[in-house]
Amino acid sequence: MKDNIRTNTRKRVLSGIRANSRLHLGNYLGAIKGMLALQENPDFETFYMVADLHSINVPYKPEDLKKNIRHVVLDYLAAGLDPSKSTIFVQSHIPEHIELSYLFATELTVARMLHLPTYKEKIKQYPDDVNMALLYYPVLMASDILIYKANAVPVGDDQLPHLEVTREVARKMNEKYELDFPEPDQFKTEGHYVPSLTGEGKMSKSVEGSYILLSDTQNEIREKLAKVPTDSGRGDKIPETGGVASLFALVELFETIEKKEDYKKQYTSDGIKYSELKSELAEAIYKELGPIQKRRTELEKDEFYVDNVIQESAKKARDIAGQTLKEVKEKMGLL
Ligand code: TRP
């Protein structure tokens, strides 16, 4: 089959986004834009999933999860992920991920997992819900990646410790069972750092008031920008942190770098009118999101098409995942 020939020569890419809430500008600029770039690069075969199994290790509502899984798929498609070029699937539809992860777990120590920074952060955030799945998170992630023998993983720097675990598992499995897992690397996308609207840290799903959703209307974007804390609009020194710095960064991301420099000059001379800056910025953001939202509305009407994409992609993913799992089970003496 044509597809299999390509599979052998092209490098594989796998990435995923959790389905804990609707996607925001941070996901879009940081992850989805990178996924799109790789999808269009003929050297890569791309697999993009909704990491729903990674979404249930913190408190959640089943009815919300169900909706959010669909939302992420729709956002992927609306943003331009193309099922004729990328395999777009839902993690839990490929149960082989879980099975392989258990086999990997035999090669990882509990102590190693306990020391991962992401685990430590999560147990601080949810001290009453320190569950086994949280500790197991990187084991499953290693399986997500290695089950497709992916070489490149477009993710943010916060995921680097998980990639280190993935490489370690690959090495150990290869040594012990004569397997041929690649040791995957982070694919650094041009994904920008998108600052929080609160002026502190980065835009994040878990910080209320910090983000603009991909689905926000022009009005909602305006309202959210209106709440960004500012100052008098004038001073000797350009603020490098806080709300004003976030606004400048967003101007650069959605308008132009020249525009940002202009505002900076105004800041140290006549002063900035934030109402004007914010209204122009809202318009620029909406200009980029509007077409995505339009496609999304179309897709929402076409449930059959979306269901079909999910089913067909799952078949393709399962086929590859099943082959890897079988190979590992054979080598481990289970088959
Ligand atoms: N852990 C990733 C995150 O929180 C999501 C994820 C799960 C993932 N499995 C993956 C990312 C495999 C890349 C590859 O963003």
UniProtKB/TrEMBL annotation:
One of its GO terms (biological process) is tryptophanyl-tRNA aminoacylation. It is an enzyme of class 6 (ligase). Keywords: Aminoacyl-tRNA synthetase, ATP-binding, Ligase, Nucleotide-binding, Protein biosynthesis. It comes from Candidatus Woesebacteria bacterium RIFCSPHIGHO2_01_FULL_40_22. One of its GO terms (molecular function) is tryptophan-tRNA ligase activity. It catalyses: tRNA(Trp) + L-tryptophan + ATP = L-tryptophyl-tRNA(Trp) + AMP + diphosphate + H(+). Belongs to the class-I aminoacyl-tRNA synthetase family. InterPro entries: aa-tRNA-synth_Ic, Rossmann-like_a/b/a_fold, Trp-tRNA-ligase, Trp-tRNA_synthetase. One of its GO terms (cellular component) is cytosol. Its EC number is 6.1.1.2. It holds the Pfam family tRNA-synt_1b. The keyword Ligase applies. PANTHER family: TRYPTOPHAN--TRNA LIGASE, MITOCHONDRIAL. This is Tryptophan--tRNA ligase.
